[in-house]
Amino acid sequence: MRKLKRYRSTKFKAKDSKYNKTMADYAVSFIECLCHTKGTWAGKPFELIDWQEQIIRDVFGILKPNGYRQFNTA
Question: Domains of the chain: which residue ranges?
Answer without folding.
Answer: 18-63
